[in-house]
Amino acid sequence: VQLQASGGGSVQAGGSLRFTCAASGRDFSSYAMGWFRQSPGKERESVATISWGPGSTYYADSVKGRFTISRDNAKNTVYLQMSSLKPEDTAVYYCAAGRQQFASWGQGTQVTVSS
Predict the structure, then answer these.
(1) Buried b / exposed e along 10-24 (16+ C-beta atoms within 10 A)
(2) How far, in Å, are 49, 58, 94, 110 from residue 86 at the CA level?
(3) For the residues of 4-57, what is the DSSP string, one character each?
(4) Among the four residues 1, 17, 19, 87, which has the most C-beta atoms within 10 Å?
């Protein structure tokens, strides 16, 4: 599966942004989808994931209550709604897809949150 992410950008603290990740290929609904991020000098971390099918979700503690991951299997798309953004959310964000592991990755998209 190939992934194309859009969204992101620059926002002030407390603001909101929305990511969209469109997938091409077959059987999108059979893939788990995830959003990851990486800040300079830090390892890449999982932000939110959603399982295949009905879509159970997982969130990093740092984003719980502020970020929402969702998917539309009819549109082969996964979303990440980010609210109450903080400067520490500044990072390059990636969407990913996989079955046993996240093997397909989209291009990174920068999010900058200013205080």
Answers:
(1) ebeeeeebebbbbbe
(2) 20, 20, 18, 14
(3) EEEE-EEEETT--EEEEEEEESS-GGGSEEEEEEE-TTS--EEEEEE-STT--E
(4) 19
Q: Distance between CA atoms of 57 and 52, rounded to whole angstroms?
A: 10
Q: Do 52 and 98 touch, CB atoms closer than 8 A?
A: no
Query: Average pLDDT for consecutive 10-residue bins of the chain (115 residues)?
Result: 93 97 90 96 96 88 97 94 97 95 94 96
Contact by Cβ (8 Å): 87, 111: no
Q: Note the pLDDT of residue 71.
A: 94
Distance CA 33, CA 47 (A): 11
Dist. CA 115–CA 64, nearest whole Å: 20
pLDDT at position 60 is: 98
